[in-house]
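--- STAGE predict ---
source: upstream dedup step, 1 unique chain passed
mode: sequence only
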Amino acid sequence: MLFIRIMAMILGLLAIAAGLLFVGQGTGVVRWPADSFMMADKAWAVRGAVLAVVGGIVVWLARRGC
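--- STAGE serialize ---
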């Protein structure tokens, strides 16, 4: 069971990081990589926010032990 909690924690943290990158690119704050198709596209900012929230929920559940 500990292995599953650790894997959930890692996946949740990766989802948060990817979501924040999507938000940054979608809002135009992050300009890396320079030729990204997500630059200044608000739809990707919304998708990134949803991904970050889902990742946060997964981390929260992993820490609780559910």
